Structures are given as C-alpha cells and as structure tokens.
Amino acid sequence: MIRSIRTYTLLAMITLFVLVLGACGGAQQPTPTATAVPPVAEATATPVPPTEAPATEVPATEAATEEATAVEPTEAATEEAATEEATEAATEEAVAEATEAATEEAVTEAAAAADVTQAPAADATAGGITVQSARRVTNVINEREAPFAAISPDGAQIAWFNQTGRRADRTGMICLFTFANADKTCHDMPTGAFRDWPYQLQWSPDSTTIAFTENPVQLGNDSDIWIFTAADGTFQNLTDDGVTGSWRGNADALIDYLPSWNAADGSIVFWRVKALGFPNFEVALYKVTPGSEAELVRDLTEALPQQILIFQQESFYLDGFSAVSPDGTKLAAIVNDVSGFGAQANLWVIDLTDDTVAPTPVMSFADYQSAVPNWPGVPAAPVGLSWTADSAGLVTVGFSNLGNSTPFMVFFYVDPAAGSFTPVVDFSGVEDSSAYFATAPGSDLPWRAFSPWTGSLSPSGAKLLMLNDLTGRMGLFTSPLPPTGGLPPVATAANESIASTVTRSSRAANGMMLMYGLLLTISEE
After folding, report:
1. Is 5 helix (H, G, I), strand (E, B) or coil?
2. SS3 62
3. What is the pLDDT of residues 56-69, one digit of tens each?
4. Cα(203)–Cα(211) distance, integer angstroms
C-alpha cells in the first residue's frame, strides 16, 4: 500500500543524509546533490516504476478516489544498494512493485475506444479549449500501468517504460503503442549496460527517436545519453564514458543527464557534471547529434559555482527541469545552489548561441513563494518548466505540500526579456485552510479547485491547461499566456475521477495530450 506521509518524510531525510555523505566520500551510495529544501515532492510523490499513483493526503471528498490506486511496493531498486544499508532503506521505501509482463502483444482500436468518455456539450468548452474525449491511457494501451508515458509530437505513438523479472533478473523495456494499427511492441533495453530505468522519455521533434538517461540523482548511477529508435527498436549510447553503476569515487565518471532536443538543429542538449568533491562540481552544457561526438556548448563551472540540477523523478511537471526554447537559442533550467546547508532552486535562462552572454536568473526561490500563503509552513519548490511556442515566454510551476490537505500548486508565466513573472492564480491572500476550501471570489468553485494536480501547455503551446479533480469529475482549467489575472475557466474533461496524480504530461500537434493518466483529445480556437 502507499506509504504514509510520515514514512515519505523520513525517506527524504534518509535519502538526503545518504546523498551528502556519499558526495563527501562516505560509505553510503551517493547522488550528485544534497538538498535541504523540505521534501515537497514526496508528499505527492509517485512511487517509481512501475506505478504513478499519488501519496498525497487529501480532504475527505478526494481521499476515497485516491485509495483505488494503492499498489504494493517493489524491490526494483535494491540490487545496487544491497551492501549499503542506508541506501537500501531509502530505495525499498521509494520503489513500487514490478509490473507483470505485457499482457497482450496488440490491442484493437475498439478496445481503446471503449473507454472514451464524452464530456457534456454544455460545459465541454472553456477558454478556447474544447474537450472532445478523455480516455485512460492504460485502457488505450491495454496495460495495468504506463510509467513515464509520453506521446510523440506527431501524435502517432505512445511510449512508456516496462520491466519484467526481479532483482538480478530484471529486464527493462521501452514499449510503443501505434494508433494507426493498434500495434503494441516492447523492446528490451541493453541489460548490464543501462542501469535501472529511465526517469524521463524525451521524443525527438520529428517523432523518430527517444532520448533518455539513467538516474544519477536519486539512484546514484553514472548516466549517459541514450537514444531509442522507434522504427527498428534499437538502442545506442551516445556518450559512453566506460562507467556503469555508481559514479561515486570514479574519477572517469561523466554524469550526462537531463537531455533536451533542440528543434532548430536536431541535436540533444544535455548537462554534464563531474564531481570534484562535494560541494564542488564541473558543470557544462554539451550537445550531441546521433552519429557524432559530444560537443561543448558552454562551460558553466564559474558562472554557476556549486550549482547543479536536482530532481525528484516522481515530480516531473511540464517539460521537466531543463528545456531548449523552440527556436533553439536559449535553454531554461531549474538549478539548485548547494553551497549552503539549505539548497534552494532558482530558474535560469542560458544563451546557447553566445557564450559571452551571462546566464540570467529569471526567478529566485523566494519568487516562487510570492503566490503561496505563509500558513502552510512549506515552501513552494520549483518542479518543472516549459517554453511557449514563440520562445518568448516560460511557464514554470512551484509546489508546496507536505502531505496535509492543503497543497498549493502555483503556475507562473515568465517573460525573460522583461525580467518579470506573473502567477496564473495568486493564493497569497488566502487567509487559512478554511478559506482555501471556501468559494473563491467571482467563482462558484473553491480556491482549492484552482490548485491542480498537474498541468501542461496546450498542443499549440499558446495556452496553459491545468487538470484537477472536482469532487469526482475531472476539470480542465485554461489560462491564456500571458495570464490576464482572472481565475481560469474550466471545461469538463471526464465524468469520473481516476485518482491518478500522474505528474508527467506531453502533447502532440494533432490535439492529443497525456495528462493525469488520461489521453485527451482537444481542439483549440
């Protein structure tokens, strides 16, 4: 069953302790970061593969639906940490039970369509968005779960991670579902060369290739930039440094992670970190194109001293923690300053075309607190970002939650050129928890309804869509970008709650989206 919030908080503390000692050369298995930010991610954390069910304690109106997704824990991450007690304790609590092998090799279109729930026409449109259908992703692909599911930019395929076996006999797979013929295929990942699982699947802009890496932050694995070619199911390591397994104490380990496709030239831009002894690191941006060697883009060691990217794989919102702008000129990233005891994350924009332009901080950790009231006592941690389609703006999200019934998820629109940011919904004036569940001014919904479970840019990249559970019905809220300052209108996305709280989202040019464990089909004005 899903662990209690107390357990997740303890887990975060243990993990932090392990990371710090590991980075300092202690016996525990390390990761390249240490963060003292309150563990807001764990409160709604999705157990790692193969499930993405929530662990958030919620009000009584929401709690009943949450129970339906409880799953048993797994031993998937314990092999590497078997000789290290602190790491083993952390990973056993954090992972979920391995899924069964794929139940069928194909699924018919009729089976996929059987779960379509049409929203009532009277309330299916809001903010220029029309919800045409909503289906559970797991029903579409005929799987019990779909970890890290991502839809291809052309809307032709869905990719997700799966695995068979346990411990030493585990075999990871990247699976594909093709809409045109309802075909489903799974391709075994290179056993022994790739460790554990990918925390994110990044489709290339032309929908032919998926980029991914190992997890160097939470599992301490040396990570390389891998690609998977959808047409033939082949895998390739583009930045093999000869290190497999833990990067701790290995002078040759180059930690390559958080890949992001540059649509302008087809390259993959990624972060390379080399540990020099905590809290010092060499940090740089590189790019690589399949078939070529990695090339330095910018050395950031002096520009961002003692600052690296830390993430919780259970809390990947929007496009993640690092993304290249659609025009290929800039990269935005959520970077943690680990120079002091309390690591704090800030949003930066980095020029990719001119290395004489200094990286620009566009939102500080304190800025993320500006739209959240003080009374919950939990800071809002940055947990994701996306560029708008015109590359002129950013959307980023901060999440404040420690397992109580008052989570605050706040989206911001950022104008990097102007150096300004605007909250989509400002909760800073909400006086207490009673007011949080009271009707918001100018609306017939409570403030709580405007703090969604997840969000995504629309397929056009011009609007922000936020999805929440409105007491048993899924509500899709819509905000223009930049936001106007009013509360976003809501259209019904489905007539039942699926109690998923899947944080990841992805979108396709044909109007399909993955959000909250749903495959949505929408149209935009």
Report:
1. helix
2. helix
3. 332 333 333 333 33
4. 6
Using DSSP, state whether 263 is helix, strand or coil.
coil
Q: Nearest Cα to 8, choosing from 49, 46, 37?
A: 46
Give yes or no for a contact between 243 and 253, defined as CB atoms under 8 angstroms apart: yes
Helix (H) or strand (E) holding 8: helix 5-23
The length of the chain is 525
Q: How far apart are CA 477 and CA 493, in angstroms?
A: 9
Cα dihedral 428, 433, 434, 436 sign: positive
Asked if residue 76 lies in contact with residue 7, where contact means CB atoms within 8 angstroms, the answer is no
Is residue 308 within 8 A of residue 497, CB to CB? The reply is no
Q: pLDDT of 187-226, one tens digit each?
A: 999 988 998 899 999 999 999 999 999 999 988 899 999 9
Domain boundaries, the chain: 5-100+117-524
The DSSP code sequence of 111-124 is HHHTT--PPPGGGS
Strand pairing class (381-387; 317-318): parallel
**pTM exceeding the 0.85 threshold for the entire prediction:** no
Distance CA 456, CA 459 (A): 9
Dig out the tokens for 289 from the structure.
């194109």
CA-wise closest residue to 274 among 240, 298, 248: 248
E strand map for 90-137: 125-126, 129-136
Closest among 371, 390, 389, 353 to 451, alpha carbons compared:
371
Q: Alpha-carbon dihedral of residues 297, 299, 304, 308, nearest 10 degrees?
A: 70
CATH code of the domain made up of 5-100+117-524: 2.120.10.30
